[in-house]
Amino acid sequence: MTRRLRIDDLLDLAVPEQPALSPDGHRVAYVLRTLDAVTDSTERNIWLVENAVSSARQLTFSNADSSPAWSPDGARLSFLHESEGRTHLCIMTLGDEQVERLGSLPTGAGKPTWSPDGSKLAFAAFVPGPATGDEAASARVHRADAPVVTDGRDYQSDGLGLLGTMKRQLHVFELATGKCIQLTHGDWHARDPEWSPDGSYLAFAAGPAADNDASLAAPAHIIAVDVPEAMPTLVGPADQVVSAIGWSADGDALFVVTSRPVGHAHLVRLPLDGSPARNLAGSLDRNVMAGAPAYPGAPPQLSRDGKALLFCIRDRGCTHLYEVDIDGGEPRPVLQGDGLVVSELSVAGNTAVTVLKTATSFGEIVSVDVADGTTRVWTHHGSNVADTESFPRMERGFTISDGTVVQGWLIRDPDSAGPQPLLLDIHGGPHNAWNSAADEVNLYHQELAARGWTVLLLNVRGSDGYGEQFYKAALGRWGIADAPDFLEPLDQLVAEGVADPDRLAVTGYSYGGYMACYLTSRDQRFAAAVAGGVVSDLRSLAGTSDSGQFLSDRELGAPAWADPRGYEAMSPLSMVEHVTTPTLILHGADDLRCPVGQATQWHGALCELGVVSRLVLYPGGSHLFTDVGQPSHRIDFNRRIVEWVEEHANGVDSELLRLPSRQAVGVGLNE
């Protein structure tokens, strides 16, 4: 007998990630991600499945292993193991499954990649940044509690935690000698490298310019591996950010995913002889997705014996797999469809494997034959939690008064009728996007639908997957441009008898948290609000966020000091005196993207105004704690949203709201 999916079912999810297809195309090594309630941690172990009809088996059991990569002969797997605060580079021999630990790496090492002859491993790892003056004379040892000294804005973050003056440099580990050689030096961050087909060069992206902290550029470079004290050679494009990189099969060109200051990322072929670059996916008018935390997609990979490239794009909220000839031509779909989300990619011959999310699956390893499009499911870790059923996301469109069409989804019991309390949930980014695939992050959607609510999801202007003009439609006009896209659909649903106008609530995280604050400061229709990862004052954000420079340059149109009126018009705090909505604020205490001061400013102002408000800080929580944080924090986040909107928008007695929990650990919050 089935039951409805609930918040605590998060603890039962097992989701594959980081697939690696063996060179012969017959085996897939991958990471299985699970949650442990007792230790309150996320566990990752490496598994192996021999073919699409066999059962998968577990290879490692430490609960802290990631980044599997096959040796060129298919006999060994390299991977990363975390223990005692260190990252260890390991190799497993598949014949006897014996593991050799090669050495310890600084925290933050990237995925190792094998040289074509299997004799070396290359990776990027953090090392102490360059020192000058008295610092250079001192011992070059980085201490976690040492002061961070910066002449510019060279502090860096991966969105999870501050890296201080640590710099990410390329390294090569020689398997025969055990030597680990640092190839690059200097004041930059080198991204994960890729070997040239002959093994003589590494390609990577980095921003070495003196003004990189201001320009944000990270172009492509190559560096000779076996030349002593070799210097990197710039390939380009010099003024753009390269987020993924690879080589053509003949070694004469690089293909990169690159983005300009504003707009879509593109798939570009960069010939090494200096001839003109070519945009290979421009005709699609879609964002090329290289993959990042909380964002699907994958670095492009060669297919068809090097004659073509596989890559991901975002289309109407989903992420699909496409192919294009290496010399150009019209891109063609390989894996696409409503509710399909492609994350990560590994290719051997004409077979590609990915982690595919669907409307009924949080993710499984799926292969696709590039030649004929045939797909096969390799893993069966539970497309959904056993014996549970989810409310589907029902698609519908909304036409805004200026003619803009906004795609949306309703989550609601299909057997219900009449006006219901409605929660408007706003995605982050602002260039992320909702879709109809299964969603493990926002399980409060399912909980509320089971309690008689309707949940509304909207991909308003600024969302990804609808063309570059739509993507850029809210630049420099946050809130101003997209507020009608949220409010007018609410009016339509009230007029249709779907939503009860007296029981409307709003929530959102990151940009969604910003919009929850913005809307409640400009509109009094909401009976409850939950703002997560809050941005309340764009002026103070500009100087405190780890992405302040990025946002000023790419999203807000100008620095805060150059456009004070524009920032005031977009900032929720400038009209906080109009807020009447009871507001719950949920924020990671160690959030660097949206610093905690944004949350305390908003909470403090609401308290001074006499507005019902509660601030919850999650100790150690980064900006991504809702996606990758402690299980207890993720569950608590979901539960508090349900309890707050039920109490303040649906009139449920707070004493009756405490959801039953089977958590084995305490949450440890600051309220």
Describe this structure in words.
By secondary structure, this protein is α+β, with helices and mostly antiparallel strands. The protein has a domain at 391-653: 3-Layer(aba) Sandwich (Rossmann fold), CATH 3.40.50.1820. It has twelve helices and 42 strands. An eight-stranded mixed sheet has the order 35-36-38-37-39-40-41-42, sandwiched between helices. A four-stranded antiparallel sheet has the order 2-3-4-5, with no helix packed on it. The radius of gyration is 25 Å and the shape is globular. It starts with a strand and ends in a 22-residue tail after the last helix.
Secondary structure blueprint with pairings:
Blueprint: E1 3-4, E2 15-21, E3 28-36, E4 41-49, E5 57-58, E6 65-70, E7 76-83, E8 86-93, E9 98-105, E10 113-114, E11 120-128, H1 134-137, E12 156-157, E13 162-164, E14 166-174, E15 180-182, E16 194-195, E17 201-205, H2 212-215, E18 220-224, E19 233-236, E20 241-247, E21 253-259, E22 265-271, E23 278-279, E24 290-292, E25 295-297, E26 301-303, E27 308-315, E28 318-325, E29 332-335, E30 341-348, E31 351-358, E32 361-369, E33 375-377, E34 388-389, E35 393-399, E36 405-411, E37 420-426, H3 444-450, E38 454-459, H4 468-471, H5 483-495, E39 499-509, H6 511-522, E40 528-532, H7 538-544, H8 548-554, H9 564-570, E41 583-588, H10 596-609, E42 613-618, H11 625-628, H12 631-649
Helix pairs in contact: 7-8
